[in-house]
Amino acid sequence: MNRPEAGSQFVAQVAVMSILAVATIVIITLLIGAPGASVEGFEPDASGTTLETDVDEVTIVDSTGTAIEMGPSHSRVATDLSDGESGEAALSTWVQLDSEAALWRDYYVAQYGDAQLVLLLIDGEWTGIHTDQQSAIVSTDVTNHDTLRQVGLEHDSEELRLYVDGELVDSEPLTDGDTDIPATDSFFGTVEEVRTFDSTLEADDWHTLHDDPVAPVEPGSETARLMFDESGGDETYVVYHGEWTELEGNIEWTDGLEGTTLSEGDDYEIDAPDNTIQPTQEGELAELPRAYIYTSDSNQFIAADTLSRVFSILLVSLVVLVVVAVITMLPTLSGGSRSRGR
After folding, report:
1. Based on the structure, what is the number of domains in the chain?
2. Range of the domain at 24
3. The pTM is what?
4. Nearest to 169 by CA among 124, 209, 117, 128
Protein backbone atom coordinates (compact mmCIF):
# COMPACT_ATOMS: atom_id res chain seq x y z
CA MET A 1 0.00 0.00 0.00
CA ASN A 2 1.48 3.37 -0.96
CA ARG A 3 1.52 6.37 1.31
CA PRO A 4 -1.44 8.24 -0.26
CA GLU A 5 -3.62 5.15 0.09
CA ALA A 6 -2.51 4.63 3.69
CA GLY A 7 -3.17 8.28 4.46
CA SER A 8 -6.62 8.18 2.93
CA GLN A 9 -7.47 5.04 4.88
CA PHE A 10 -6.25 6.65 8.09
CA VAL A 11 -8.39 9.75 7.50
CA ALA A 12 -11.44 7.61 6.73
CA GLN A 13 -10.95 5.52 9.85
CA VAL A 14 -10.52 8.58 12.06
CA ALA A 15 -13.67 10.14 10.54
CA VAL A 16 -15.71 6.99 11.20
CA MET A 17 -14.40 6.71 14.75
CA SER A 18 -15.18 10.40 15.38
CA ILE A 19 -18.76 9.97 14.20
CA LEU A 20 -19.20 6.91 16.41
CA ALA A 21 -17.71 8.73 19.41
CA VAL A 22 -19.96 11.77 18.95
CA ALA A 23 -23.03 9.53 18.57
CA THR A 24 -22.06 7.66 21.76
CA ILE A 25 -21.61 10.92 23.68
CA VAL A 26 -25.00 12.23 22.50
CA ILE A 27 -26.75 9.00 23.50
CA ILE A 28 -25.12 8.90 26.93
CA THR A 29 -25.92 12.58 27.53
CA LEU A 30 -29.56 12.00 26.66
CA LEU A 31 -29.69 9.01 28.98
CA ILE A 32 -28.37 10.88 32.02
CA GLY A 33 -30.35 14.03 31.28
CA ALA A 34 -29.40 17.62 30.74
CA PRO A 35 -27.21 19.34 33.35
CA GLY A 36 -29.20 19.97 36.52
CA ALA A 37 -28.92 19.96 40.29
CA SER A 38 -28.07 16.88 42.29
CA VAL A 39 -27.42 16.06 45.90
CA GLU A 40 -23.95 15.33 47.20
CA GLY A 41 -23.92 11.65 48.05
CA PHE A 42 -27.02 10.87 45.99
CA GLU A 43 -27.68 10.48 42.28
CA PRO A 44 -30.24 12.65 40.49
CA ASP A 45 -33.72 11.13 40.73
CA ALA A 46 -32.39 9.19 43.70
CA SER A 47 -33.99 5.86 44.42
CA GLY A 48 -33.37 3.37 47.17
CA THR A 49 -34.92 1.60 50.10
CA THR A 50 -37.74 3.47 51.77
CA LEU A 51 -37.56 3.66 55.54
CA GLU A 52 -40.99 4.12 57.10
CA THR A 53 -41.33 4.81 60.81
CA ASP A 54 -44.95 4.90 61.92
CA VAL A 55 -45.21 6.77 65.20
CA ASP A 56 -48.37 8.57 66.25
CA GLU A 57 -49.71 8.16 62.72
CA VAL A 58 -46.70 9.92 61.19
CA THR A 59 -44.85 8.22 58.34
CA ILE A 60 -41.37 9.47 57.47
CA VAL A 61 -39.53 8.45 54.31
CA ASP A 62 -35.76 8.55 54.57
CA SER A 63 -33.66 10.60 52.21
CA THR A 64 -32.34 7.73 50.11
CA GLY A 65 -35.86 6.97 48.93
CA THR A 66 -38.55 9.37 47.81
CA ALA A 67 -37.35 12.07 50.20
CA ILE A 68 -34.91 13.37 47.59
CA GLU A 69 -35.84 13.57 43.93
CA MET A 70 -33.60 15.59 41.65
CA GLY A 71 -33.61 15.98 37.89
CA PRO A 72 -33.08 18.38 35.00
CA SER A 73 -36.63 19.79 35.19
CA HIS A 74 -37.56 19.60 38.86
CA SER A 75 -36.06 19.49 42.34
CA ARG A 76 -37.85 18.21 45.40
CA VAL A 77 -37.17 17.26 48.99
CA ALA A 78 -40.34 15.36 49.81
CA THR A 79 -41.90 13.92 52.94
CA ASP A 80 -44.43 11.13 52.90
CA LEU A 81 -46.86 12.11 55.63
CA SER A 82 -50.23 10.63 56.48
CA ASP A 83 -52.81 13.01 57.89
CA GLY A 84 -53.75 12.41 61.48
CA GLU A 85 -57.29 11.52 62.44
CA SER A 86 -58.07 15.24 62.53
CA GLY A 87 -57.18 15.62 58.84
CA GLU A 88 -54.36 18.03 59.68
CA ALA A 89 -50.72 18.16 58.63
CA ALA A 90 -47.72 20.49 58.88
CA LEU A 91 -44.15 20.65 57.66
CA SER A 92 -41.19 22.85 58.49
CA THR A 93 -37.83 23.19 56.75
CA TRP A 94 -34.72 25.39 56.72
CA VAL A 95 -33.57 26.56 53.30
CA GLN A 96 -30.77 28.79 52.03
CA LEU A 97 -30.49 29.85 48.39
CA ASP A 98 -27.00 30.10 46.94
CA SER A 99 -27.48 33.29 44.89
CA GLU A 100 -29.88 36.07 44.05
CA ALA A 101 -30.51 34.36 40.71
CA ALA A 102 -31.83 31.36 42.62
CA LEU A 103 -34.77 33.50 43.74
CA TRP A 104 -36.19 33.18 40.26
CA ARG A 105 -35.99 29.42 40.00
CA ASP A 106 -39.05 27.35 40.81
CA TYR A 107 -38.62 24.24 42.92
CA TYR A 108 -40.25 22.06 45.53
CA VAL A 109 -39.05 22.07 49.09
CA ALA A 110 -41.42 19.49 50.52
CA GLN A 111 -44.61 17.64 49.84
CA TYR A 112 -46.49 14.66 51.18
CA GLY A 113 -48.62 11.83 49.89
CA ASP A 114 -51.43 12.15 47.36
CA ALA A 115 -52.79 15.26 49.07
CA GLN A 116 -49.78 17.27 47.86
CA LEU A 117 -48.84 19.72 50.60
CA VAL A 118 -46.12 21.43 48.59
CA LEU A 119 -43.69 24.25 49.35
CA LEU A 120 -42.16 25.98 46.32
CA LEU A 121 -40.31 29.10 45.28
CA ILE A 122 -42.13 30.77 42.38
CA ASP A 123 -40.98 34.05 40.84
CA GLY A 124 -39.23 35.17 44.01
CA GLU A 125 -42.04 34.17 46.39
CA TRP A 126 -42.35 31.35 48.88
CA THR A 127 -45.51 29.57 47.79
CA GLY A 128 -47.50 26.92 49.61
CA ILE A 129 -50.06 24.75 47.82
CA HIS A 130 -52.52 22.26 49.21
CA THR A 131 -54.23 20.28 46.50
CA ASP A 132 -56.58 17.31 46.66
CA GLN A 133 -60.32 17.31 47.34
CA GLN A 134 -59.89 20.86 48.61
CA SER A 135 -57.15 23.32 47.71
CA ALA A 136 -55.59 26.69 48.49
CA ILE A 137 -52.49 28.73 47.60
CA VAL A 138 -50.52 31.01 49.94
CA SER A 139 -47.39 33.07 49.20
CA THR A 140 -45.03 35.79 50.40
CA ASP A 141 -41.97 37.59 49.00
CA VAL A 142 -38.52 36.15 49.72
CA THR A 143 -36.56 38.96 51.35
CA ASN A 144 -33.01 37.70 50.86
CA HIS A 145 -31.03 34.77 49.46
CA ASP A 146 -27.90 34.55 51.60
CA THR A 147 -29.48 33.54 54.93
CA LEU A 148 -30.82 30.23 56.16
CA ARG A 149 -34.59 30.75 56.51
CA GLN A 150 -37.14 28.62 58.32
CA VAL A 151 -40.25 28.10 56.19
CA GLY A 152 -43.36 26.21 57.28
CA LEU A 153 -46.70 25.16 55.88
CA GLU A 154 -49.75 23.65 57.56
CA HIS A 155 -53.40 22.93 56.90
CA ASP A 156 -56.47 21.94 58.88
CA SER A 157 -59.96 21.25 57.55
CA GLU A 158 -60.59 24.95 56.85
CA GLU A 159 -57.48 26.77 55.69
CA LEU A 160 -53.83 26.68 54.57
CA ARG A 161 -51.20 28.75 56.41
CA LEU A 162 -47.64 29.79 55.48
CA TYR A 163 -44.94 30.67 58.06
CA VAL A 164 -41.51 32.26 57.59
CA ASP A 165 -39.04 32.44 60.48
CA GLY A 166 -41.75 31.41 62.94
CA GLU A 167 -44.27 34.08 61.90
CA LEU A 168 -47.55 33.63 60.03
CA VAL A 169 -47.27 35.50 56.71
CA ASP A 170 -50.31 34.32 54.75
CA SER A 171 -53.44 32.19 55.08
CA GLU A 172 -56.19 31.21 52.67
CA PRO A 173 -59.42 29.20 53.11
CA LEU A 174 -59.64 25.81 51.44
CA THR A 175 -62.04 25.64 48.51
CA ASP A 176 -63.51 22.63 46.74
CA GLY A 177 -61.54 21.28 43.79
CA ASP A 178 -57.97 20.42 42.87
CA THR A 179 -55.08 22.77 41.99
CA ASP A 180 -52.28 22.04 39.54
CA ILE A 181 -48.70 22.11 40.82
CA PRO A 182 -46.45 24.08 38.43
CA ALA A 183 -43.31 22.62 36.93
CA THR A 184 -40.08 23.40 38.78
CA ASP A 185 -36.45 24.10 37.90
CA SER A 186 -33.26 22.72 39.35
CA PHE A 187 -32.56 23.71 42.95
CA PHE A 188 -29.50 25.75 43.90
CA GLY A 189 -28.94 25.99 47.63
CA THR A 190 -29.03 24.04 50.89
CA VAL A 191 -31.84 22.32 52.79
CA GLU A 192 -30.82 21.74 56.40
CA GLU A 193 -33.76 19.83 57.84
CA VAL A 194 -37.37 18.86 57.28
CA ARG A 195 -39.87 18.15 60.06
CA THR A 196 -43.34 16.72 59.55
CA PHE A 197 -46.33 16.70 61.89
CA ASP A 198 -49.71 14.97 61.83
CA SER A 199 -51.43 18.03 63.27
CA THR A 200 -51.30 21.80 63.04
CA LEU A 201 -49.02 23.66 65.47
CA GLU A 202 -49.59 26.49 67.91
CA ALA A 203 -47.96 29.89 67.37
CA ASP A 204 -45.47 29.14 70.17
CA ASP A 205 -44.53 25.89 68.42
CA TRP A 206 -43.64 27.74 65.21
CA HIS A 207 -41.55 30.18 67.25
CA THR A 208 -39.75 27.23 68.86
CA LEU A 209 -39.04 25.67 65.47
CA HIS A 210 -37.40 28.92 64.39
CA ASP A 211 -35.57 29.69 67.65
CA ASP A 212 -34.22 26.17 68.31
CA PRO A 213 -33.23 24.57 65.01
CA VAL A 214 -31.22 21.39 64.83
CA ALA A 215 -27.59 22.35 64.36
CA PRO A 216 -26.59 22.20 60.67
CA VAL A 217 -24.65 19.18 59.43
CA GLU A 218 -21.66 19.84 57.22
CA PRO A 219 -21.94 18.11 53.83
CA GLY A 220 -20.31 14.70 53.95
CA SER A 221 -20.01 14.58 57.74
CA GLU A 222 -20.91 11.62 59.94
CA THR A 223 -22.86 13.70 62.46
CA ALA A 224 -25.92 11.97 63.90
CA ARG A 225 -29.28 13.49 64.78
CA LEU A 226 -30.63 12.63 68.23
CA MET A 227 -34.08 13.25 69.68
CA PHE A 228 -36.62 12.02 72.23
CA ASP A 229 -40.23 11.02 71.89
CA GLU A 230 -41.96 14.34 72.55
CA SER A 231 -45.11 12.71 73.92
CA GLY A 232 -43.30 11.81 77.14
CA GLY A 233 -42.30 8.23 76.33
CA ASP A 234 -38.89 6.66 76.75
CA GLU A 235 -38.11 6.13 73.08
CA THR A 236 -35.00 7.75 71.65
CA TYR A 237 -34.21 7.95 67.95
CA VAL A 238 -30.93 8.57 66.19
CA VAL A 239 -30.46 8.92 62.44
CA TYR A 240 -27.28 7.45 61.05
CA HIS A 241 -26.47 7.58 57.32
CA GLY A 242 -29.97 8.89 56.70
CA GLU A 243 -31.80 6.07 58.49
CA TRP A 244 -33.68 6.20 61.78
CA THR A 245 -32.71 3.73 64.50
CA GLU A 246 -34.76 3.38 67.69
CA LEU A 247 -32.72 3.21 70.90
CA GLU A 248 -34.22 1.74 74.06
CA GLY A 249 -32.44 1.32 77.39
CA ASN A 250 -29.13 -0.49 77.04
CA ILE A 251 -28.42 -0.22 73.34
CA GLU A 252 -27.66 -3.35 71.38
CA TRP A 253 -26.53 -2.04 68.02
CA THR A 254 -26.91 -3.90 64.78
CA ASP A 255 -24.71 -3.39 61.74
CA GLY A 256 -21.56 -3.48 63.88
CA LEU A 257 -22.29 -0.31 65.85
CA GLU A 258 -21.67 -0.21 69.57
CA GLY A 259 -23.08 2.27 72.01
CA THR A 260 -24.02 2.94 75.60
CA THR A 261 -27.11 3.87 77.57
CA LEU A 262 -28.54 7.23 76.49
CA SER A 263 -30.41 9.41 78.95
CA GLU A 264 -31.85 12.88 78.66
CA GLY A 265 -29.36 15.65 79.37
CA ASP A 266 -26.27 13.51 78.80
CA ASP A 267 -23.51 14.31 76.36
CA TYR A 268 -23.96 11.49 73.86
CA GLU A 269 -21.15 9.80 72.00
CA ILE A 270 -21.76 6.63 70.02
CA ASP A 271 -18.75 4.82 68.64
CA ALA A 272 -18.89 3.30 65.16
CA PRO A 273 -16.18 0.99 63.74
CA ASP A 274 -14.33 3.68 61.76
CA ASN A 275 -15.62 6.94 63.17
CA THR A 276 -17.35 8.59 66.08
CA ILE A 277 -20.93 9.79 65.73
CA GLN A 278 -21.43 12.89 67.84
CA PRO A 279 -25.03 14.14 68.10
CA THR A 280 -25.32 17.84 67.51
CA GLN A 281 -27.39 18.85 70.50
CA GLU A 282 -27.70 17.73 74.10
CA GLY A 283 -30.94 16.66 75.66
CA GLU A 284 -34.41 17.24 74.35
CA LEU A 285 -34.73 19.09 71.05
CA ALA A 286 -38.10 20.76 71.49
CA GLU A 287 -41.36 20.23 73.35
CA LEU A 288 -43.49 19.73 70.28
CA PRO A 289 -46.23 17.11 69.83
CA ARG A 290 -45.42 14.15 67.56
CA ALA A 291 -42.37 15.86 66.07
CA TYR A 292 -39.98 13.68 64.08
CA ILE A 293 -37.05 14.86 62.02
CA TYR A 294 -35.14 13.38 59.15
CA THR A 295 -32.04 14.68 57.46
CA SER A 296 -29.34 13.23 55.25
CA ASP A 297 -25.65 13.16 56.14
CA SER A 298 -24.97 15.04 52.90
CA ASN A 299 -27.51 17.78 52.38
CA GLN A 300 -25.63 20.27 50.19
CA PHE A 301 -27.00 20.52 46.67
CA ILE A 302 -24.35 20.58 43.94
CA ALA A 303 -25.69 22.21 40.78
CA ALA A 304 -22.77 21.35 38.53
CA ASP A 305 -22.60 17.64 39.31
CA THR A 306 -24.39 16.39 36.20
CA LEU A 307 -22.47 18.80 33.99
CA SER A 308 -19.16 17.57 35.39
CA ARG A 309 -20.18 14.01 34.58
CA VAL A 310 -20.90 15.01 30.98
CA PHE A 311 -17.40 16.51 30.70
CA SER A 312 -15.93 13.35 32.22
CA ILE A 313 -17.74 11.25 29.62
CA LEU A 314 -16.43 13.52 26.86
CA LEU A 315 -12.86 13.18 28.13
CA VAL A 316 -13.07 9.39 28.45
CA SER A 317 -14.63 9.16 24.98
CA LEU A 318 -11.77 11.24 23.52
CA VAL A 319 -9.16 9.00 25.13
CA VAL A 320 -10.93 5.88 23.85
CA LEU A 321 -11.09 7.40 20.37
CA VAL A 322 -7.35 8.05 20.29
CA VAL A 323 -6.49 4.57 21.60
CA VAL A 324 -8.80 2.84 19.11
CA ALA A 325 -7.45 4.93 16.23
CA VAL A 326 -3.84 4.04 17.12
CA ILE A 327 -4.65 0.34 17.46
CA THR A 328 -6.58 0.38 14.17
CA MET A 329 -3.69 2.03 12.30
CA LEU A 330 -0.95 -0.27 13.62
CA PRO A 331 -1.33 -2.83 10.77
CA THR A 332 -1.39 -0.03 8.16
CA LEU A 333 1.67 1.66 9.61
CA SER A 334 3.46 -1.66 9.89
CA GLY A 335 2.63 -2.50 6.25
CA GLY A 336 3.93 0.87 5.11
CA SER A 337 7.22 0.27 6.92
CA ARG A 338 7.64 -3.14 5.27
CA SER A 339 6.92 -1.62 1.83
CA ARG A 340 9.61 0.99 2.31
CA GLY A 341 12.00 -1.73 3.44
CA ARG A 342 11.51 -3.69 0.20
Report:
1. 2
2. 3-35+306-341
3. 0.45
4. 128
